[in-house]
What we know:
Layout: E1 22-28, E2 31-38, E3 41-48, E4 71-73, E5 80-81, E6 97-98, E7 103-109, E8 118-124, H1 142-146, E9 150-154, H2 159-162, H3 167-173, H4 181-196, E10 202-212, H5 214-224, E11 234-238, E12 251-252, H6 253-266, H7 274-281, H8 285-288, H9 293-298, E13 308-309, H10 318-323, E14 333-338, H11 349-354, H12 360-366, H13 372-398, E15 403-408, H14 428-432, H15 435-438, H16 445-464, E16 484-489, E17 492-497, H17 501-509
Parallel strand pairs: 2-4, 5-6, 8-9, 8-10, 10-11, 11-14, 12-13, 14-15, 15-16
Antiparallel strand pairs: 1-2, 2-3, 3-7, 7-9, 16-17
Helix pairs in contact: 13-17
Amino acid sequence: xxxxxxxxxxxxxxxxxxxxxxxxxxxxxxxxxxxxxxxxxxxxxxxxxxxxxxxxxxxxxxxxxxxxxxxxxxxxxxxxxxxxxxxxxxxxxxxxxxxxxxxxxxxxxxxxxxxxxxxxxxxxxxxxxxxxxxxxxxxxxxxxxxxxxxxxxxxxxxxxxxxxxxxxxxxxxxxxxxxxxxxxxxxxxxxxxxxxxxxxxxxxxxxxxxxxxxxxxxxxxxxxxxxxxxxxxxxxxxxxxxxxxxxxxxxxxxxxxxxxxxxxxxxxxxxxxxxxxxxxxxxxxxxxxxxxxxxxxxxxxxxxxxxxxxxxxxxxxxxxxxxxxxxxxxxxxxxxxxxxxxxxxxxxxxxxxxxxxxxxxxxxxxxxxxxxxxxxxxxxxxxxxxxxxxxxxxxxxxxxxxxxxxxxxxxxxxxxxxxxxxxxxxxxxxxxxxxxxxxxxxxxxxxxxxxxxxxxxxxxxxxxxxxxxxxxxxxxxxxxxxxxxxxxxxxxxxxxxxxxxxxxxxxxxxxx
Length: 512
């Protein structure tokens, strides 16, 4: 799950020339695109990577996009995928919504051209698989381009339009993939990158996928899929890694189909065959996109379908697949979470502590706090995100894959008086260097320093697989025996013994 303001930029008259933009064109496999070159960055937005998934293409694997003649404008975002936004989102959408939403965006260095071969980073947004898109200002990729990286972001279907199972869909697909359409969209966008990124000056052999929350979970899933092998060479999971049995675990197809049938009945569709499927495809997209993080966090949506094991495209939990040698088990990975991650749906501290069974007294000592909310939040974060991140980075190390563990404990200085800690998704504007968008007029030198360090570590990892930052500590590969992580603390990044180790050991010992 994922809980996600634009700072004004004042140009002095003598510097006004910096605001001027030039048009630039690039030829891709379906036609010519016209983007914008400005302030050292070439930007192309709203590029179709698949056909609009509307009408009879609703709930189907993404189809090839049609070619066009002439020059297609690529200067503004395409639709973000259909959803019900919510007011508390820290990454508010910046554009329109629609079912026709399979578009991607590219930020490239000003001198990027065929043959240059810049490293590529492919961003996957979070939002609990029910919210999110590529248009939020905090996802602007300009800083990556100025750091010598081509940043690609792509929309993928979410909610019932992106993850939906129904007996009629299963039958219609025969032995083909069905259900997890959002993952199929991500795969289609990565294949587009392989075919076309060289035209923008990118290196298709050096692609790093990264995402946060549902985006991090997507990264984990893509890493485990045989169909995605060879499409990327490194992966970064931010608050999205999971152990089987944790909060991000998936149901099977039967349970997902039962939810789909129940939802269909709730909108008056009782037929479970082709006629029923036709009726469901005729429903307005706004009817199907009626769930949001707000509703899920308050009550849960018993009719909502998230990613599930469909038995064809997704055949098991990511870590089980990787352990069996599927997908890309040996690529370098970076895995972590925030210091106060997670969402306590049950805020009763007694029940939270009792969940540790015979070790409840030990849990009471480790999670002791004067504030009951902090107690339950820490437990929820450790169970849902922080210990699963350690589980995944340990599993990668056990496969002899170079892995790096981190924790983002830094809190923006303007938030330190009120925040309980570094909350879920709080690291995103730091890694994108868009903290001025998230906290306009409130950014301090310490905030900037943390943002630059995190950004530099990630960029260097994408460039050559070794995370480094000027003036920052040496970030060594994860060693399960030492259990050291890079912690972005209030005092700056520190490569230290994991301060949560005792808590995470306890969580691990009582994990499902």
